[in-house]
Design a protein that fits this description.
The complex is a heterodimer of chains A (about 160) and B (about 100). Chain A has about 160 residues and is mainly beta. Chain A has a domain of about 90 residues. Chain A contains two helices and eleven strands; from the N terminus they run E-E-E-H-E-E-E-E-E-E-E-E-H. In chain A, strands 6-7-8-9-4-3-10-11 form an eight-stranded mixed β-sheet. In chain A, a hairpin with a 6-residue loop joins strand 1 and strand 2. The two termini of chain A are about 15 Å apart. With about 100 residues, chain B is of the alpha+beta class. Chain B folds into two domains: about 50 residues, no CATH class; about 45 residues, no CATH class. Chain B contains one helix and four strands. The chains are: A mainly beta (about 160), B alpha+beta (about 100). Chains A and B meet through helix 1 and strand 6 of A and strand 1 of B.
Chain lengths: ~160, ~100
């Protein structure tokens, strides 16, 4: 599916927080790590890394929970203060990036994942497409995921 | 089943697509959503299976709301419903069939 015209808008469930994504993301992939399973309550979570300046909050109030990853890195998780929908992460080790949760975009039908990470902790009934860019654990670099996205959609 | 609501839980209400009121319960500290309850089914709680410490056995038995599924999501052979599951019994029967087949 081709990329839509940007900006694209999104927001939380109750509508208090609205945001705009002004340019295409660097990539989209599924994360099957235990933290993503816990925090989404689902089998895995979609992740969409974007450049910080391309994600603009338009309205509403957010609440922030900070977690420490296994690597020791601190990540802030940003949610609507009213309904609790989690919308993006701020990785404090990479302030030039935000990790958007694509399911909060008004339309994310164009955001087909190009890979999977932490497949070793995937649910046993989840089938991984071997043709995608997949990692058993944390990828040493996200560049191959970004390259797969660019190959499909052009440079971000 | 009615859970007491200790201070560590935060609850919010929302109106579902069906128009029914649903109460959602989340950790008050980190915001992780854990389960929800609906007024019209006071005897059950809908747990978010991914919050179990060992969720791998919790294989979905049916798919609901497939009319709004993403175009690139492949669904398995399980029963599919374009909207809501018509009745809970449909879901429970499908789950029981999984169990009987030793699939989980």
């Amino acid at each position: 599916m081709p990329l839509p015209k940007f900006p694209q808008q999104g927001g939380c469930h109750c509508g208090a927080v609205r945001y705009e994504l002004t340019a295409p993301p660097l990539g989209v992939y599924n994360c099957h790590c235990a933290d993503c399973q816990k925090m989404s309550g689902a089998a895995y979570a979609m992740s969409m890394p974007v450049r910080t300046e391309t994600l603009v909050q338009l309205s509403g109030e957010v609440s922030i929970f900070e977690k420490v990853a296994d690597s020791g890195r601190r990540v802030q998780m940003v949610s609507c203060a009213k309904c609790g929908t989690r919308m993006w992460n701020v990785p404090l080790s990479s302030p030039e990036m935000r990790t958007l949760r694509p399911g909060t975009l008004d339309d994310f039908s164009w955001a087909e994942p190009v890979g999977n990470i932490w497949t070793k902790s995937r649910m046993p009934w989840i089938e991984i497409d071997a043709a995608l860019v997949n990692y058993e654990g944390q990828p040493p670099s996200r560049e191959p995921l970004y390259a797969a996205w660019s190959a499909k959609h052009g440079e971000a | 089943m009615v859970f007491p609501q200790p201070a560590a839980l935060a609850s919010t209400q929302r109106r579902g697509d069906s128009g029914r009121i649903v109460r959602q319960f989340a950790c008050a500290q980190c915001g992780t959503r854990l389960w929800h309850e609906a007024d019209h089914t006071p005897d059950t709680v809908i747990l978010r299976a991914g919050t179990l410490d060992e969720p791998g056995w919790a294989r979905p038995a049916v798919h609901s709301w497939t009319r709004s599924r993403l175009p690139w999501v492949d669904l398995g052979d399980e029963p599919q419903f374009a909207g809501a599951v018509p009745s809970r019994d449909v879901l429970y029967d499908a789950w029981r069939a999984w169990l009987d087949a030793g699939e989980t």
